[in-house]
């Protein structure tokens, strides 16, 4: 599996564009480790698995919404959908306490610098979900006041399509994020070793489910409830 | 019937004669339109005088309902109208006359300047700032003419015809670290700008910035507070973080393909938003729809009213600190969505109304679903009333808080449940029925004190009335077509398309190009979930609108905040924000 390496550059010049820092695609860093020293390699692998397991099952979302999609996101937090099943019911009102930021709604030009600031205030490890067509690409708003996709300045981990996505889709997006967190390689300590963040390149769901989609030949008639 | 209509017309147009008598016929141009109200052009020099006159005339126009502009430079069909490059229009409402009046002022490109109306109608303030922002028109004497919707660093005036609409016509968006600092710095609140003192006597005021992202501002709304301890001395709401250019968008979408954009104006209102737009388009096209289509529309609109009020109730009580109500109301919403989805095929934004009818007929078995919902809701509403509104903590936080009178509400353009909470029995569904509301039997709930508590109670009572309306729809759903038989109905009925090549071509053009509507102006106002919502459409005889003005209730409600909250405490502000029931898309569009 290939990984995306991100390295923070604390001395980045003022005119650098967001997202700041080095990004490139590399091989699994653990492969190297295992070759060098099988025992230490395996141990580190187990450590990563344990830490990632803990992280992915207690993702605290940031209570942050931009527009319509936020309503469906909130719906996922309430009783009928019950996000607590996935360990993400601890909504935080401050970015400093949150792990995952869901960009649910349209990203406006006037709002973009503020979103960036809120993102910067979150502490590592942190993740971003882009929810809805507007956040993914501007959606139906190809208009002067809308940023055409929040990934113009934020690094996105999961994209959820839909306008708005159903609460179920949001929950699926959250689970996909969990899957990807399980594969991550983050520094286990800040004193030794590589300080880069390695995120697995996850397969696209669109391709993965293509056959399934094509196999559907009969759609439900809208004439019957 | 006809005499009734002409009588109503006579009272509506009486003001024209009064104006002529006062200002002389030669000084006014009366424009014939399909708006259902008199549209009168006056000279800029006379504007203030005219406004003062209509404000003080017998049966006065108490409310400045709307104010905006039009870039007339590319308009082809303007025969008989005064020459103008830009127009500013003022829409006024009189409750006693039960009618509206539109005053227009023509402006020349080299001299884009009108006197401010802030001294006559207080609520002109924000509207004029928006017109300045969007068209670059100067309002002489305005207390604080600055950008409203666009960032302070913005260049250009987006609603001008020569301003590009698409983001993809500009360079792709980038944000640098410097750029971020610069933008943030530009947003810094400067009290001196607003004539606020930093200290007085022995108190140092604290300035608190609430928003644009804060759990209790329901989206992206910012309000800067001047505080003396807990007390709000003054405050400045700041909007524009949710501006999606919906009005500009209408100038490039066909009449038909603009429908989905209307859903997203008041995004908790779903198809309720389609209604004023569709009705205004139908006036332009001259379509009258079948009574089945009307009833289906009313039923779905009321479903969304309930849905929106449920969301309101949950979040309102959550803002007061009650954690559980939102879980109850959202499970009710889930049930409402069950019905809505079965009928329209979508949850939040069905875009289900069509020019001339609705998208398809009711599915078999819809009545069972609606029945289930009607049986489910009433006991729940009783429970909410008992458990929440009788709750002593809720009462402590809300009774007598953020009160305003009917007169104040009218001055600030407050409408809908927030207006009725002050005790005024004004509901457009009764005052000027549209889409067949005159056939339904329901009451208008009113409050007494106009405080936060009343505004909450209003919504519970309104849901009961909506249930009554839906029940009547269920029992008396008329038979017939769900679409009108008219050449401009879009999309045309499918069985009519398959007859011969002619019908196929018409269908093709109608769907790909969209219908072409005759040049004229039309207008429709409805009682939406949050107040009066209207679309004022200008057609230039094209496949899309020349100018679409969307008047939304929440814009006015937010402008009203300082008048209500100054002198109150911060927790009162939070309670008040919760009770207004606004969504930012309904403010910034
Ligand atoms: S994707 Fe659709 S539902 Fe979501 S914010 Fe954009 S317009 Fe609204």
Question: How is the topology of this model organized?
Answer:
The complex is a heterodimer of chains A (225) and B (589).
Chain A: E1 2-7, E2 22-27, H1 29-36, H2 38-56, H3 68-77, E3 100-104, H4 112-121, E4 127-131, H5 133-137, E5 158-160, H6 167-182, E6 197-200, H7 205-208, H8 210-215
Parallel strand pairs in A: 3-4, 4-5
Antiparallel strand pairs in A: 1-2, 1-6
Chain B: H1 2-23, E1 29-31, E2 39-42, H2 47-56, E3 63-71, E4 86-94, E5 99-107, E6 113-115, H3 124-135, E7 138-140, H4 177-186, E8 199-200, E9 203-204, E10 206-210, E11 222-228, E12 231-238, H5 246-249, H6 259-263, H7 274-285, H8 291-319, H9 325-344, E13 353-354, E14 357-358, H10 366-389, H11 392-398, H12 406-411, H13 417-420, H14 428-431, H15 452-475, H16 494-497, H17 501-512, E15 520-527, E16 532-539, E17 545-551, H18 553-559, H19 561-565, H20 570-580, H21 585-588
Parallel strand pairs in B: 2-5, 6-7
Antiparallel strand pairs in B: 1-2, 3-4, 4-5, 8-9, 10-11, 11-12, 13-14, 15-16, 16-17
Helix pairs in contact in B: 8-9, 8-15, 8-20, 9-10, 10-15, 15-20
Bound molecules: iron/sulfur cluster.
Describe the protein.
The complex is a heterodimer of chains A (about 220) and B (about 600). Chain A has a domain at about 60-185 and about 200-215: Rossmann fold (3-Layer(aba) Sandwich). In chain A, helix 3 crosses helix 6. Chain A contains eight helices and six strands, in the order E-E-H-H-H-E-H-E-H-E-H-E-H-H. Chain A is globular, with a radius of gyration of 19 Å. In chain A, about 35% of the residues are buried. The mean pLDDT of chain A is about 85. Chain A is of the alpha/beta class. Chain A has a three-stranded antiparallel beta sheet with strand order 2-1-6, with no helix packed on it. In chain A, strands 3-4-5 form a three-stranded parallel beta sheet. Helix content of chain A is about 35%, strand content about 15%. Chain B has about 600 residues and is of the alpha+beta class. Chain B folds into two domains: about 15-140, Beta Polymerase, domain 2; about 245-360 and about 365-589, Cytochrome-c3 Hydrogenase, chain B, CATH 1.10.645. In chain B, about 40% of the residues lie in helices and about 15% in strands. Chain B is built from 21 helices and 17 strands. In chain B, the strands form six sheets. Chain B has a five-stranded mixed beta sheet with strand order 1-2-5-4-3. In chain B, strands 10-11-12 form a three-stranded antiparallel beta sheet. In chain B, strands 15-16-17 form a three-stranded antiparallel beta sheet. In chain B, helix 8 (about 290-320) runs antiparallel to helix 9 (about 325-345), helix 8 (about 290-320) runs antiparallel to helix 15 (about 450-475) and helix 10 (about 365-390) runs antiparallel to helix 15 (about 450-475). Chain B is globular, with a radius of gyration of 24 Å. At the A-B interface, helix 3 and helix 4 of A face helix 4, helix 9 and helix 10 of B. Iron/sulfur cluster binds near residues 133 and 164 of chain A.
